[in-house]
Design brief:
Shape: globular
Radius of gyration: 17 Å
Low-confidence stretches: none
Helix content: 40-55%
Strand order of the largest sheet: 3-2-1-4-5-6
Oligomer: single chain
Structural class: alpha/beta
Number of strands: 6
């Protein structure tokens, strides 16, 4: 079974969150720093809000912080582009009879908006939301759960993700890992190449890759 991340893997959306973070902090007269990025990147909404509240010493509740983020990002997911080669690769996988699902840290509303806008919903059996489970994707349990929901063994799953931490969680669950390049996390490329079973710059590469190499 193939398990796909959403943000930065299937859709070119990581820039949305950098813009949201910059605007959120600018409203409070604060700079966007690497330390802040490290605290909120590749995690689920509630934990990112908790980090933000503590890191920035904010009086707002976590719920108010998340509501502001939702307001800043909502319309952007209705216009987000698909990444190169994704549509063709999903179509190829479906023609080959591959079973596919999405495993994402994205907020459910944003995920569904993007998949509907891009007409990608039809390719996936289900969506596993880390947000709803309260699990980060670096936790092997979310990957085991995704396999269990699909009725397959973790060893029979291949995941596609742009996050090194998520790839580490899937590997710990005994899954095969395909790392996907995203320009917003290009600093991780060398480590991703060393760690992942396969590393791609674009899904276009997989259209020509022999099946036994993946």
């Amino acid at each position: 079974m193939f398990l796909f991340d959403l943000d930065g893997t299937l859709i070119d959306s990581n820039g949305i969150w950098k813009d949201v973070d910059r605007e959120f902090l600018a409203r409070r007269g604060m700079p966007y720093t690497h330390a802040y990025y490290e605290g909120v990147a590749h995690t689920i909404f509630p934990l990112a809000a908790k980090f933000t509240k503590e890191f920035c010493h904010l009086s707002e509740s976590c719920e108010e912080i998340m509501a502001e983020w939702m307001d800043l990002a909502r319309d952007l997911y209705a216009h987000v582009p698909v990444k190169p080669g994704v549509r063709a690769y999903l179509k190829q996988c479906r023609a080959e009879g591959r079973r596919m699902a999405v495993v994402t840290s994205s907020v459910p509303e944003h995920c569904r908006t993007a998949l509907h806008h891009l007409n990608l919903e039809k390719y996936f059996e289900r969506i596993v939301f880390a947000h709803d489970l309260g699990l980060e994707k670096k936790d092997p349990e979310i990957w085991r759960l995704a396999a269990r929901e699909g009725g397959v063994r973790p060893e029979d799953c291949t995941i596609f993700d742009d996050s090194l931490a998520a790839c580490g969680g899937a590997r710990a669950a005994k899954m095969r890992v395909v790392g996907v390049y995203d320009r917003f996390f290009s600093q991780d490329e060398k480590e991703m190449r060393d760690f992942c079973d396969v590393y791609i710059q674009s899904f276009e590469e997989l259209l020509w890759m022999p099946e036994d190499q993946l």
